[in-house]
């Protein structure tokens, strides 16, 4: 079971991870984009972090919805609407739930991915966050019967593999696609922040078992 308190811990942990990786994410985006991914994500998640104390009495769905609104209004670029959509769909998937079973977490992850796919229209292999999110949802589904922690471990391992696989890809979506073949040889910045998002959730589940 994932509790409301763990969701709040996850968001705090992810905001910290983003802050710690701000320079790295920006460096990755400097190689294949416009050097703002770390700045964008940190701007959004700093706002989320400030907002968290006001969300303490809300249910999981409303917490995720508030995060979505904050991200959409504070992050520019491609990643703002995409992460905003991920959190909005995640919020809808767990409406009225007080705690999340492994199946609920699967619904949440799948809904988030579906939102990103609909919004960004990227396909697997386009060198985007989809290449990290999609295999992680598949891996979670494969292990959902083993419980949330085990399934999340598999999801994060798959996310890490997916991220590594973005390195030789040529970008076909977003700013990186303007570089053509020169986008080859670098990890995708948004894929990296997506991996960190899943890893920070695993960290919270792991520390409270
Ligand atoms: P921008 O590209 O506007 O500068 P960011 O640098 O914050 O925005 O985010 C770039 C990341 O957004 C990319 O690394 C990629 O993972 C993701 N991205 C861009 N376009 C798409 C898309 N159409 N679908 C999914 N993800 C995308
Ligand atoms: Mg950028």
Topology:
Elements: E1 2-3, H1 4-20, H2 22-32, H3 37-51, H4 60-74, H5 79-93, E2 99-100, H6 102-120, H7 130-143, H8 148-166, H9 189-207
Antiparallel strand pairs: 1-2
Helix pairs in contact: 1-2, 1-3, 1-9, 2-3, 2-9, 3-4, 4-5, 5-6, 6-7, 7-8, 7-9, 8-9
This protein binds adenosine-5'-diphosphate and magnesium ion.
Describe this structure in words.
The chain is mostly helical. It has a single domain (2-207), classed as Serine Threonine Protein Phosphatase 5, Tetratricopeptide repeat (Alpha Horseshoe). The protein is built from 9 helices and 2 strands; from the N terminus they run βαααααβαααα. The protein has a two-stranded antiparallel ribbon. Helix 1 runs antiparallel to helix 3, helix 4 (60-74) packs antiparallel against helix 5 (79-93) and helix 6 runs antiparallel to helix 7 (130-143). The model has no long low-confidence stretch (mean pLDDT 97). Magnesium ion binds at residues 29, 33-34, 36-37, 77, 175.
